[in-house]
Amino acid sequence: MIIVFVKIKDWLSKRAYLLFFLIISIWFMGFASYTSPLFYFDYSPDNNCFFTVGKALMHGILPYKDVFEQKGPYVYLIHGIASLFNGHSLLGMFPFEVLSLFLSMYIVYKIARMYTYQLAACAIAILMPLFQLFHPYYNYGDTVESLLFAAMLSLIYTLLKADRNQFVIARWDWTLQGFLVGLTFLMKYTLLGGWIIFYLAMFGYYVKKKMWPEISKLIGWSALGFAIAVGPWLIFFLATHSLGDFFHVYFYENMHIYMLSNNSVFAKFIESLTIYSSFLRQDPLIFLCGFLGYVYLLFSRSAFKSAWGKMLFVMMMVVNAAFIVYGYHSGQVYQYYELAFFPYLVIPGVFALINAIKRFDVKITEKNESMVLISRALLSFFLVLGVNDNILSSRIFPNNGSVTLNQTNKPQQPAQIEFGRIMRAQSKGRPTMLNYGSIDMGFYTTSGALPSTYYFQNYNIPHSKAPEILDSQLNVIKKHQVQWVVLNTPAGKKINKWNGSPTISGKIISGNINPGTKKIAKPLLKNYRVVTNHTQNFESANVTYWLLKRK
Question: How far apart are CA 205 and CA 218, in angstroms?
């Protein structure tokens, strides 16, 4: 019994760094993510949209078939699970955010551990959050790019292990990567660029080297992992007769309606590389870890031992970058897309630190490990605050601009929480509401309402490209089919005076402001009365939110 206890104690002591990583993940995410308890509310339109559809899924309302939304089903499942924890906020997503950062730190630790000793690898991993929480790419948090950050790092880790082992990859690694391909495929397939090149290149390499057993492992075990990820959803869509709706929305609509560029395939690829090149020059740290870091990796043997490994890493990086922004013009890319560039930026930084530790013979021992690791955590936290100032919109700073523009010392709540309480108090049972003209503003979240119409929100699509969206919403208002309507205007504009932007006709503008309310004011005010309004700042725009109740 004593021997067993000693072995358990020894096992735990060797893995104490995992608890340290977890504490750091909770600490850093608490200050960076809007899903944190330190924040009033997660204002992100996309995150609230995922939450609304996920909550609807938990109540038997099918994505793609019953409500229109174009992300992958795993996104809605995760948010649906979060809604079971708290149905009126995105607080339930906080553990998923923490898990994502924890796994990223763990994988960076595993990478560093291949080249240096354990305590040094821990110290290096502690600095990793700087890359994952880099604002504005990590904006509100809870993006698909952030949730899959660790998955992309794991692919690079698999490549680095393969490079050290004559590119023989274990069955478990192929199964895991197959699963992650399936997971990414059903979350956001534009993040698959690195995997596509990795699989094609490794298959070609094995054929060239006539490594037939390795080809069998690649295909068989990867297929198993992919089937584990995709199979349950295929069964679900078949059982609910919604497979056709899934294919139409997730693939056709994404590829035809959301794509901004009409250029040729080759021209779109060049556009993507132009955007990536511009990204690498936007910030000194990004330039240092990106462009200069990539050059350093190519001309040194610190990371990759073979020329094939270096070439494959570069190809994965380039195709990953191209896929992420494929079909977009420079200046029209949502910055949170570019967070998916950062896993490849981590690697030069990791090896720069490894080489510095070796060059200067840095020793971390049992005598100084506590001081070194805690000071490294404090330094990392300081660096994160330098690249992410989200905490300025938290409860630590009451009545900040994201909550209210009123000059008052009386504690205020943002429009989402204020309106949600009113709707819940004045509705019999679950409220019914419509978010008119903009992407989900969070009022479905706080009110507890479920989507009662296919187009429960608007999208970043011009009216001319998909007129059925706003036309359908107007029809709901004319028939007064919901009890509540929530919409927004720029601060100072009345509902019957807001025509929309004269330069971007029929499209949502900055601040998630809808494309105009004047044209619907007559039927709206005929069937609904204004209950209240609230003005606050959102994405550098002063926005007035309006709550209307059916007469």
Answer: 12
